[in-house]
What does this fold into?
Amino acid sequence: MTQNSDYLFMIENACKAPSGHNTQPWLFKIREAEIDIYPDFSKELPVVDHNHRELFVSLGCAVENLCVAAREKGYHTEVKVIKDSFIRVLLTKDKKKQSDSLFPQIALRQTNRSVYDGREIPEDSIKILKNIPIEPSISIYFYKRGSVDYERLADMVYRGNSLQMNNEAFKTELTTWMRYNKKHQNKTRDGLSYATFGAPNVPRFIAKFVMSKAINEKAQNKEDRKKIASSSHFVLFTTKDDTVEQWVGLGRVLERILLCSTAMGIVNAYLNQPNEESDVAKDMVARLQIPNEHPTILIRLGYGKEMPYSLRRDYKSCILLSE
It folds into this structure.
């Protein structure tokens, strides 16, 4: 059966979304007037994301990319979360084609894990990001470098590192998704590529030895201190009820922020350790005075040089056959 080229275009762009450890945990099913997006639990991260919250946030990012690409092809979209298990995007051809200004940013967006240049993001740029439409029950908080809450969040990142880097199961899961050199990354086309960390392309046994010495509390906190000091803002995303539907909605809002910031030349990276450790997350709610909210995603923003891009698997390999 010949597949709709417009739908393939949408899926190809959806697969450029960010995901935890670059696991790319999505599957797509094409129907007559809709595309269903399913979680691929074979790509789950059971230690760091035991309830699949970050996985569904990643699916939300993919949904947002799909919707942006759909508008580029002249479609109206309607998104529904079905039985907390998958997402359905209803597609209707729109007689008035309206291109989305964020579409070109899908290919340019990247997670930039480098040390930034220390420049402060102007307040008018932050205001643009604050005015981006959000989904129901999602909140976004911006914390400027130098503020008390910025330092509080930094301390919670270090606490999260201390817990995770002393958890052997966490380190085992992390190293499972590391791609140690060019040959390794090109074979899997997923995971955490050596290149995105600015590491050299060396034989795998050397890279594994070097990385094994870097995966510890002291080294991680030392590196994150430099990265946090060089960044301009933290951005914290929360949900009201911590539900699958809200995780998907948060992912859509997150991707809007990332695409818009990319258009302004602002780079980003995740520092999600405090959200992944329940005791630290509870303390975050209290210290930041955001009661009745569930901290879910924490990113840093700033200015920096472009880094190598993470690879993606062939999007066609993520398409399920329809019944």
